[in-house]
Specification:
Keywords: Membrane, Signal-anchor, Transmembrane, Transmembrane helix. GO terms for molecular function: O-acetyltransferase activity. This is Trichome birefringence-like N-terminal domain-containing protein. By secondary structure, the chain is α/β, with parallel strands linked by helices. It folds into two domains: 90 residues, no CATH class; 345 residues, SGNH hydrolase (Rossmann fold). The chain is 37% helix and 14% strand. The chain has a seven-stranded mixed β-sheet with strand order 4-5-6-3-9-12-13, with helices on both faces. A hairpin with a 2-residue loop joins strand 10 and strand 11.
Length: 477
């Protein structure tokens, strides 16, 4: 039909115009232009067909009403597929933070939905997004190159999911998504490790101001950074157990001293601050290996590795489970909290030749293959415990409108025994006897966590847009 040809030509013309506008970074204008123009052509086509079929005048009114609804639906769906061009740009070079190049997107699907957490590490000769020379925010504990680590191959690997490509981190896009918002990392020093990775990734676009002193006395453990150009606040709130904790040993705190946990009470250090944050990345891990006495309702219910005859021995997994359960319940109980919560899963350590306090180290310089290392033992138990509690929180969250997402880093990091500081987490001249096989070098494999995070934020942004548009469509039809 001739009208079909005209309609096709119109779509082709406005697709080309959209590509041009995209190259000018005016995505919204592109989407609106594309939608309006094609809808105009569609309506003209509808009018022509109605004129040709005017002999069916008895059915004109009902057909016209139905057609208008169908046209509105079609145009709205078209708009729905074009707007995500802005949110779902594809991969870029990791050597510098890329600009948002929407013109590179050639399909409507944008980022393929897939399990980004199952995959393998592949060589990436181009190296990391930043170095210790380009990012001055790396602390000595994670600055492995500055501290004398001789090999650099640990920085030249990239995570490849089994089902798709994981987009490179796009600092400009990340900052656009969080414009005017607040993000907090809640947990221990491994969570802070991820935040410091994010600081370096964003530094290629804009600089941040350390405003920690405005909010906390202990600015070593409670940090806040402000990005004035984007009105974005990035924070880390120190809470290694997520619940209230205190030293149980009257002689004071040490690396392996006994501590008491109130498993049914959230740590106010984060709970009193979190209500106004838009994104919360929550995590906990290796502190649960230490000797612990568990309390609930102000009563002792058991202990882990306390070796007291009058207290029931309970595994570390019980305390771990209850800590996350209490944390999620606390977030759900906060009246003003409307943020998205990401649970970052357990981060494996890689001590070999002994435990951390028995001369253990992590000397490897290459990743494991998926055949060499499988998720099992305590890493699997910690991971499954987290997932089970998250699923419960998600179920409750669907009723209240709160979103809980899984940032499943465990499988990928299990394969990276080469990514830890080992003895290169301090000055090369200091006398270091304890190896660090828990934290991660910067730059290093932990940068992948923020690639995961951005992927999930993009997906969430698209989902939120779709929900709003569908509601608007429902109101108009």
């Amino acid at each position: 039909m001739q009208s079909d040809g005209k309609m096709s030509a119109a779509v082709d013309y406005h697709s080309k115009r959209c590509a041009y506008l995209s190259s000018k970074k005016n995505v919204l204008k592109c989407a609106q232009s594309h939608r309006n123009a094609i809808c105009n052509h569609a309506y003209l086509f509808h009018f022509t067909m109605k004129f040709n079929d005017i002999e069916f005048s008895k059915e004109k009114n009902s057909q016209h009403g139905t057609s208008k609804k169908l046209l509105l639906l079609a145009c709205s769906l078209l708009f729905l597929t074009i707007i995500p061009l802005y949110l779902f740009s594809t991969s870029h070079s990791p050597l510098s933070s890329p600009k948002i190049d929407v013109g590179d997107l050639r399909n409507i699907g944008m980022v393929k939905e897939c399990d980004i957490f199952s995959g393998k590490w592949i060589p990436h000769p181009k190296g990391p997004y930043y170095t210790d020379a380009t990012c001055s925010l790396i602390i000595d504990q994670h600055n492995c190159v500055k501290s004398g680590r001789p090999d650099t191959e640990f920085m030249k690997w990239r995570w490849r999911p089994d089902e798709c490509e994981l987009p490179f981190f796009n600092a400009k896009l990340f900052l656009e998504l969080v414009k005017g918002k607040k993000m907090a990392f809640v947990g221990d020093s491994v969570g802070r490790n991820q935040m410091q990775s994010l600081l370096c990734l964003l530094a290629s676009v804009t600089q941040s101001e350390d405003i920690s002193h405005r909010y906390a006395v202990d600015t070593a453990y409670f940090k806040r950074w402000f990005y004035a150009d984007y009105r974005f606040t990035l924070a880390t709130l120190w809470s290694p157990f997520l619940v209230k904790s205190r030293d149980a040993n009257p002689s004071g705190h040490s690396l392996n001293s006994l501590m008491s946990l109130d498993l049914d009470q959230a740590d106010e250090a984060w709970a009193s601050e979190i209500e106004n944050f838009d994104y919360v990345i929550i995590s906990a891990g290796h502190w649960f290996f230490r000797p612990l006495i568990y309390y609930m309702n102000a009563q002792v219910v058991g202990c882990h590795n306390c070796y007291m005859d009058n207290i029931t021995a309970i595994t570390k997994y019980f305390g771990y489970r209850m800590a996350f359960r209490t944390a999620f319940k606390t977030l759900q109980s906060l009246e003003s909290y409307k943020g998205i919560t990401f649970l970052r899963t357990f981060s494996p350590s890689h001590f070999e030749n002994g435990a951390w306090n028995e001369g253990g180290n992590c000397m490897r310089t290459m990743p494991f293959t998926t055949e060499e290392k499988k998720l099992d033992g305590y890493e699997l138990e910690f991971y499954l415990t987290q997932v089970e509690e998250l699923r419960k929180a998600q179920k409750k969250g669907r009723k209240s409108g709160l979103k809980f997402e899984l940032l499943a880093t465990t499988e990928a990091m299990l394969l990276r025994p080469d990514g830890h500081p080992n003895h290169y987490g301090r000055s090369p001249h200091s006398n270091v006897t304890v190896a660090d096989c828990v934290h991660w070098c910067l730059p290093g494999p932990i940068d992948t966590w923020n690639e995961f995070l951005l992927y999930m934020m993009r997906r969430e942004a698209r989902g939120s847009f779709n929900e709003k548009l569908q509601k608007n469509i429902s109101r108009k039809i």
